[in-house]
Amino acid sequence: MPSPNDPRTNRLLAALPDAEWGRWQALLEPVDLPLGKVLHESGGALEHVYFPTSALVSLLYVLADGGTAEIAVVGLEGLVGVTLFMGGGSTPSRAVVQSAGQGFRLPAPALQEEFQRAGPAMHLLLRYTQALITQMAQTAVCNRHHSLDQQLCRWLLLSLDRLPGNELVMTQELIGNMLGVRREGVTEAAGRLQAAGLIRYARGRITVLDRPGLEARTCECYGVVKKEYDRLLPHAAPG
């Protein structure tokens, strides 16, 4: 299994051509990403872009009353901070580490300079952004039209795709905040998945026991998102 201390465990970094990787490598800084760390706040200026290698980051929309709902999840497949190169400068979402781990960060000016070169890195970042937008749109559709069981299966599968293992360290309260539902609903849904032998949940740790079973139980939304990421982004092994 690739090491979280290797920046090219992150699939976007692994996909960079040699010339771009040579420019970025010296500028990347390893960072610990503890549970609950806020990488950027709603409306704030971004000073870095983050490339997780073993952490999971939620992009959350924050309501006026303090309530939150997850609009996307980012892990080793991507980056946090697309507004740095999309021209907006800030974003209405908050980025919070939801599963602790490691990653790397790159200063904002370095990423903006690379994007302005209009080379391979720019095209890679734009394809990633298109995939991320698909995830956001499908999350909205799923939360409106599908059952909590299906939403939880989708969320677990998307999270697993972005982590190096098959275990999530996550409380039911935090899952509820991610999905925008009450903790009691998550408890019941997780209990049904556990009773079906699909997951094991104990002391804040969710271990997936039967991934094909989860895939069979989820809605079409997971497949739509996965297909778009697979279509747009390379799955190069770290080199």
Automatic annotation (TrEMBL):
- Presence of keyword Transcription regulation: yes
Q: Which Gene3D superfamilies match?
A: Jelly Rolls
Which keywords does this chain's UniProt record carry?
DNA-binding, Transcription, Transcription regulation
Q: Which SUPFAM superfamilies match?
A: cAMP-binding domain-like (SSF51206), Winged helix' DNA-binding domain (SSF46785)
Q: Which residues form the HTH crp-type domain?
A: 146-212
Q: Which Pfam families match?
A: HTH_Crp_2 (PF13545)
Under InterPro entries, the record lists: cNMP-bd_dom, cNMP-bd_dom_sf, Env_Response_Regulators, HTH_CRP, RmlC-like_jellyroll, WH_DNA-bd_sf
Taken from the UniProt entry, a GO cellular component term is: cytosol
GO molecular-function terms, A-Z? DNA binding; DNA-binding transcription factor activity
Tagged with keyword Transcription: yes
- Listed PANTHER family: CRP FAMILY TRANSCRIPTIONAL REGULATORY PROTEIN (PTHR24567), HTH-TYPE TRANSCRIPTIONAL REGULATOR ARCR (PTHR24567:SF74)
**What's the name of the protein?**
Transcriptional regulator, Crp/Fnr family
